[in-house]
Amino acid sequence: MYPLIPAHQIALRVAAMGRLIGDDYRNKSLTVLGVLNGSIILVADLIRSVQVPHRVGFVHASSYGGPTTASGSLTIGWNLLPEIQGRHVLLIDDIFDTGKTLVRLTDTLQQQRPASLRTAVLLWKQGASEVQAVPDYFGFQIPNKFVVGYGLDYGDDYRHLSDVHVLEESDLEGSAV
Ligand code: IMP
Ligand code: MG
After folding, report:
1. pLDDT tens across 101-147, in order?
2. Does ligand 1 lie within 6 Å of residue 96's CB atom?
């Protein structure tokens, strides 16, 4: 495992994203909608620099098929979803990899008729996309490697790390949790 993006750089970038989002949503009825579990740290940090009134809600998405599998069968949980009809929704996830998770979520959320729907991610993996869509806001473009930390997990561990790290083959064997 080796560090890719240090915590202080993430903090600066996330604060800048939050200020930009605040400017873009001035005088709009904003709902920030985090995708659990990976977005928890990003949502917590980001909303503190979004200097306009907004609501915060969550949806749940998880993929099965192995600890690093992003594009296996995706299960979405809507039971936490707040009322979003007529509101400007910003959907937040940790990473845009194949893009399938955010496309599935945005397609379904559109049925609730939000006033607008955009996406924001901390990381955008280059060369991995399998969809036409791109994130509306992103923190960093990264190489097509498996990363952990700042909310991103491997086998549900490592989310608590402050820096983003690249996991190597030798790390991908046993998991402690
Ligand atoms: P996508 O549907 O392929 O864009 O994948 C999105 C989801 O896969 C994210 O919400 C993550 O949970 C997971 N994921 C994709 N790439 C990584 C990674 O490098 N590290 C940890 N999780 C990842
Ligand atoms: Mg995950």
Report:
1. 999 999 999 999 999 999 999 999 999 999 999 999 999 999 999 99
2. yes
